[in-house]
Amino acid sequence: xxxxxxxxxxxxxxxxxxxxxxxxxxxxxxxxxxxxxxxxxxxxxxxxxxxxxxxxxxxxxxxxxxxxxxxxxxxxxxxxxxxxxxxxxxxxxxxxxxxxxxxxxxxxxxx
Amino acid sequence: xxxxxxxxxxxxxxxxxxxxxxxxxxxxxxxxxxxxxxxxxxxxxxxxxxxxxxxxxxxxxxxxxxxxxxxxxxxxxxxxxxxxxxxxxxxxxxxxxxxxxxxxxxxxxxxxxxxx
Lengths: 111, 116
Known about the structure:
heterodimer, A: 6-stranded mixed sheet, 5-stranded antiparallel sheet, about 0% helix, B: 4-stranded antiparallel sheet, about 55% strand
């Protein structure tokens, strides 16, 4: 069953603003990953955060993980038009190699 | 490294025909590959897990006789959509598991299937 649930489903911001997307999941996880997908294209892996980590940074990306609330957030700072894409969280269940994807957030960055 | 390719990138076929989609790990061996389907404006849904040298494991609700998976080598898995119908039109994405990289999945660029 689908685990991750992102909100908002769609987000529209001006270039230069920060974008925050949230993800919730239902069961225990080993790690949580965020992916980006440009329209009609494949997935690009952005960042992985392990279950024993609370925060992770990669360039303009900041991911937090709260295992007590079973939630994660992805922050993109100083957004650019090129950040326009759909963003998905995905989780591996404990002892599983299968990824379960959330519904995604469609981000539009207006130049 | 860790590049996964898919072929074709898009295909249009007539209803009732069969379509084969290839997924290749270009620079690593993958005993496990995964096939996902993504309908417009929706998320990826796992269809099946493809294991080299053995039968694929299908997710609930996915017809194994309609979506034939063959993982004949450590670098190639194929998905054949048999007797395709318009409702099979979707974006099909594969991924390959790299065991030496923390079991991370690397995704192909996807195949857009349109059934007329």
